[in-house]
Amino acid sequence: MKETKPWVKPALEIGPVLLFFAVFMLFRDREVVVFGQPYSGFIFATLIFVPVLALSTFLLWRVTGKLSPMQIATLVLVILFGGLSVWLNDPRFFKMKPTLIYLIFAVILAVSLLARRNWLQLVLSEALPMDAEGWRKLTWRMMLAFIGLAVANEIVWRTMSETTWVYFKTFGLPLILMAFLMANAGLFRDHALDKDSGKE
Q1: Which of 2, 19, 47, 102 is the one with CA 20 to 30 A from 28?
Q2: How many whole angstroms separate alpha carbon 20 and alpha carbon 9?
Q3: HSE-up of 170 (CA within 13 Å, CB side)?
Q4: What's the Cα-to-Cα distance from 186 to each of 36, 37, 122, 137, 182, rounded to whole Å?
Q5: 194 within 8 A of 174, measured Cβ to Cβ
């Protein structure tokens, strides 16, 4: 990985989401006309978010030298579903995007367990050294967590207000993922490997 200032990567990852939130909150009660086409504040925020995320992902690749599979998948789905929402002037496509992302990763983790090839370990083992049993347990838990997040996203966007969903997407989902990682601290500790020796 290329050497970068410690704030650059988080800024590029979080910046587009915070920009979407700010634009939505500013225009949520207004109609915005772009090239003669009227858009709601939500669609207008999506219209801004899609190219900004594409640019930030490109810059992230330039400064770090790599992108994770999740970052690439997220970008592709944002362009696809965000583009559909703007093109059809229908916010439902963009609201369904997190559901699809979480289900895709749940399926990937399920396939890795069935194939007995722990892909989560391949991606994260350098940052989180654990034995094989620890990775198996974490993969099961993350698969179930992704399914739960997909269900939660569907419930929120289908039954609650647009503003509630934006708050949930911007702050709720990251906090849930953070709580999940904290709840697994015992697993990380019990199955940790010594970084120097590679042994328990």
Answers
A1: 102
A2: 18
A3: 19
A4: 56, 53, 21, 12, 9
A5: no
Helix, strand and coil in the chain, % to nearest 5: 75, 5, 20
- Asked if 50 and 79 touch (Cβ cutoff 8 Å), the reply is yes
Task: Name the token pair of 177.
Answer: 């993922």
Does this model's pTM top 0.90? no
Cα(113)–Cα(116) distance, rounded to whole angstroms?
A: 5
Task: List pLDDT tens digits, range 93-115.
Answer: 999 999 999 999 999 999 988 88
Angle at 175 between CA 18 and CA 124, to 5 degrees: 95
Q: Where are the domains of the chain?
A: 1-88, 91-200
